[in-house]
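Entry 14. Structure prediction run on the chain below.
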Amino acid sequence: MLFLTPTVLKNLSKKPATRKYPFVVREPFDNYRGELVINASECILCGSCMRKCPSLCITVDKTAETWECDPYACIYCGHCVTVCPTHCLSMKNVHRAPAPKKINILEHGEAPKKKKKEEGAE
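Output returned:
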């Protein structure tokens, strides 16, 4: 027991080695890929983000015009952001806040309407 005394005294005189998260949050690193954000008004519901997602956390339903993401399944790789043709997906450089229950991100967009061919045009 006596051989632990110097270590105990040394640790009592120093600051704690850990932070009291979520009350004390450190700044994110450069190029940190944080929370996934969508601008639903620009989304054309093409589904390319859903097809390229390695964790299959994104679901696009063109008939219901919805875009859904499960942030607990997301691995924050950023593939969906790079393949989006309209650049409506982005990643904030902040940590997702702790939540007491699981909440999926559900956004309603509007699929672009098909253009009708003009009559008489060749």
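DSSP finds three helices and five strands in the chain.
Filed with the rest of this week's runs.
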